[in-house]
Amino acid sequence: MSEAAESIFSLVKASEGGAPLYLQLKKNIEDAVQRGVIGPGDALPSERDIAIKADISRVTVRKAVQDLVKSGILVQRHGSGTFVAPRMERVEQSLSRLTSFTDDMARRGMSASSVWLDKGIYPPSPDEIMILGLSAKELVARVSRLRIANETPMAIERASLSLAALPDPEAVGSSLYSTLDKTGSRPARAVQRISAVNLVGADARLLEVPEGSACLHIERISYLASGKVIEFTRSIYRGDAYDFVAELRLAGPGEESGGTT
Question: Among 161, 158, 147, which residue's Cα sits nearest to residue 104?
């Protein structure tokens, strides 16, 4: 970190009747980010180093940093340290097309990648039995991955399929749909349900956002052209990164309307 950037930590001074020290430090860091003195991805010094530089306690430093993490200005990565959060470019996702994450990002000129979290065969849950039409004695294939765009975690996808559709989850490479294509099991259409939830635990850490952050939970049931259910997916999308867009048309005579006028 440059000398100019480090100087933001030496500006905290106790003043009678002034703001608490942690708020002074918090404001110094916020101002530095806004002015570009420290930019996205830059690492902050350790709490100990900041405390020594600013001549304040580590408890004060920790409180300022935690507030900035909660507000999304900083991110903490376990075992790595504290960094200025990347600037998020919001992604506008159409709800009228069934496309892959990789294709969506490519159309926006963004580099897409994935980290596999799980590929395995398991006893089905009650939801998987009901939605995929399985018996209690059948097993289910599950594949889960963290979706990344331009090195920023964007979503967690957890897909469940029957073994008839995906007998070997380990065979899935970069694209699940490409694998399903080979067996004639690629979905033709899907129905999605979107709800707002707050991230907790491991999902928050995977997406590098504070616990309690708003996100979009999406359940998608995908169908073959024949109408058979082929895939049940539950996904978590960052609320600060995605806008889902749907085109609405006025219902014609005799058609059901989805809203009021």
Answer: 147
DSSP code for 199:
-
- State the Cα torsion 173-101-71-246 to the nearest 10°: -160
* Dihedral (CA of 70, 73, 76, 81) sign: negative
**pLDDT tens per residue across span 76-111:** 887 788 888 776 555 555 555 666 666 666 665 666
Cα gap 185→169, rounded to integer Å = 14
Token output for 156: 């967690």
In order of their start, the domains of the chain are: 3-84 (1.10.10.10), 91-245 (3.40.1410.10)
Tens-digit pLDDT profile for residues 57-83: 999 999 999 888 877 788 888 778 888
Q: Phi first, then psi: what are they for 174, rounded to 5°?
A: -75, -20
Across-strand partners of 120?
142
Helices vs. strands in the chain: H and E counts, helices first: 8, 10
Helix (H) or strand (E) holding 205: helix 201-206
C-beta of residue 91 within 8 angstroms of C-beta of residue 107: no
Considering the entire predicted model, what is its pTM? 0.63
Residue 40 neighbours by CB distance under 10 Å = 14
Beta bridge mates, 156: 146, 236
Contact between residue 91 and residue 149 where contact means Cβ atoms under 8 Å apart? yes
Evaluate whether 148 touches 154 at the Cβ level (below 8 Å): yes
